[in-house]
C-alpha cells in the first residue's frame, strides 16, 4: 500500500464539502466522508490504475462516484 498525503488545503476542502453536504441533508456529510475514505483506500492500493491529468508530472485524479469531488 502507498501512503496518502493530504495537504492542509485539501483537508480544508474536505471539511467545507462535509459541512455543505451535511447542511443539505443530515447524514449526507457522513456519506461523503465514507466515500472519500473508500477512495483513499482504493488509491493507496493501486495508484497506477487511475487516469492521468498531466502525464509529464505523473499527476492522476479520481472522481468520487456519488459526489462531484475530485481527488488529485
How is the secondary structure organized here?
Blueprint: H1 8-24, H2 28-45, E1 52-54, E2 59-60, E3 62-63, E4 70-71
Antiparallel strand pairs: 1-2, 3-4
Q: Which features would summarize this protein structure in a list?
A:
single chain; 72 residues; alpha+beta; two-stranded antiparallel ribbon; two-stranded antiparallel sheet; 4 strands; 49% helix
Account of the protein in words:
Helix content is 49%, strand content 12%. The chain has 72 residues and is α+β, with helices and mostly antiparallel strands. Strands 1-2 form a two-stranded antiparallel ribbon. It has a two-stranded antiparallel sheet with strand order 3-4. A hairpin with a 4-residue loop joins strand 1 and strand 2 (59-60). Helix 1 runs antiparallel to helix 2. The model has no long low-confidence stretch (mean pLDDT 90).
Reading the helices and strands in chain order gives: HHEEEE
Mean pLDDT across all amino acids? 90
- Please indicate the percent range of residues in DSSP E strands (runs of 2 or more): 5-15%
How many strands, what sense, and barrel or not for the largest sheet?
Answer: 2 strands, antiparallel
- What number of structural domains do the residues give? 1
Stretches where pLDDT falls below 50 for ≥5 residues?
none
Through-space gap between termini = 18 Å
